[in-house]
Amino acid sequence: MFKLSFQSIGHVVVRSYMSFRNLFKISIVPNLIDPLFYLLAMGFGVGAYLTHVNGMLYRDFVITGLIAATAMSAATAETTVNAFIQYKIEKTYDAMFMTPINTSDIVVGQAIWAGIRAVIFGGIFWLISMLITAHFHVLMLLIPLILFIVGYLFGVLGLIFTYLAPSREFLNYYNVLVIRPLYMFSDTFFPITSLPPILGDLTWFSPLYHATRMIRIIWGGEVTGLYLHLIWLIALALLITVLPMYMLHRRYYR
C-alpha cells in the first residue's frame, strides 16, 4: 500500500504541471486577488492608523502573513477542486492506474505539486511585496522552502477531504469551515495574543500559524525560534501523508 516509486511520483508531478501550464495565465488573478485586496485594506488601510505590531511595521506584519496564506490557498485549490475533478469527474486516476503508478505515488505526487504551486503563487506575492517594501536580505531565500512545506502539508489535507467528499459542492464546507478560519486567525492580520486564551492556544495547532511565524522571523533577519516551527510542520506533513494513501488504496482495492 505504501510502496513509492520516485519515477512514478515524477510522472504524476509532470502530468500536473502539463495541465497547469495551459491554465497558468487565467489562474494568476484568482490566486492573487484576495491577498492583494487584503494587503490594500489591512496593510495600507488599517496600517495608516496602526503603524507597528510586535516590533515590526504593521504593513510588514500583514505581508508576511499573506505570503503564507497565499501558499495555503494555492495548494488547497490544487488538491480540492482540481483533484476532485481528476478523481471523480474526468477519471484521471483510473487512467493512471492503468500504468505502474499506484495510489501512494498519486498522493505524494499531487502533494508535491501542491507544494510547487504554493511556491509559484506565494513566491509571486512575495516578489510583489519586495517591490512594495524594497526589503530583501539573503535569509529571505529560505522563504520558498517554507512555502513548499506548507503547500505540501495543505495539499495532503486537501486530498483527505477530497477523498471524503461525495460531491464537488461539499468541498465548500472545507473552505468555509477550515481554510477561511485558518486564513483569518493564524497570526495573519493580528497577533494571536489578542484572542481569548483558549483560542490563542488552539491557534498553535494551525499549520498556517507556524508558516507565518517562520516567514516573519526570516523577514526580520533572524533564525532564532525557526526550528521548532519547522520541525512541527515537517513532522505533521509526514505523519498525515499516510492517511490519504490509505483512503485511496481502500477506495480502489477493497
TrEMBL record:
<dbReference type="InterPro" id="IPR051784">
    <property type="entry name" value="Nod_factor_ABC_transporter"/>
</dbReference>
<keyword id="KW-0472">Membrane</keyword>
<feature type="domain" description="ABC transmembrane type-2">
    <location>
        <begin position="26"/>
        <end position="251"/>
    </location>
</feature>
<keyword id="KW-0812">Transmembrane</keyword>
<feature type="transmembrane region" description="Helical">
    <location>
        <begin position="177"/>
        <end position="199"/>
    </location>
</feature>
<feature type="transmembrane region" description="Helical">
    <location>
        <begin position="62"/>
        <end position="85"/>
    </location>
</feature>
<dbReference type="InterPro" id="IPR013525">
    <property type="entry name" value="ABC2_TM"/>
</dbReference>
<dbReference type="Pfam" id="PF01061">
    <property type="entry name" value="ABC2_membrane"/>
</dbReference>
<keyword id="KW-1133">Transmembrane helix</keyword>
<feature type="transmembrane region" description="Helical">
    <location>
        <begin position="106"/>
        <end position="132"/>
    </location>
</feature>
<dbReference type="GO" id="GO:0043190">
    <property type="term" value="C:ATP-binding cassette (ABC) transporter complex"/>
</dbReference>
<feature type="transmembrane region" description="Helical">
    <location>
        <begin position="138"/>
        <end position="165"/>
    </location>
</feature>
<feature type="transmembrane region" description="Helical">
    <location>
        <begin position="226"/>
        <end position="248"/>
    </location>
</feature>
<dbReference type="GO" id="GO:0140359">
    <property type="term" value="F:ABC-type transporter activity"/>
</dbReference>
<feature type="transmembrane region" description="Helical">
    <location>
        <begin position="28"/>
        <end position="50"/>
    </location>
</feature>
<dbReference type="InterPro" id="IPR047817">
    <property type="entry name" value="ABC2_TM_bact-type"/>
</dbReference>
<keyword id="KW-0813">Transport</keyword>
<dbReference type="InterPro" id="IPR000412">
    <property type="entry name" value="ABC_2_transport"/>
</dbReference>
<comment type="similarity">
    <text>Belongs to the ABC-2 integral membrane protein family.</text>
</comment>
<keyword id="KW-1003">Cell membrane</keyword>
<protein>
    <recommendedName>
        <fullName>Transport permease protein</fullName>
    </recommendedName>
</protein>
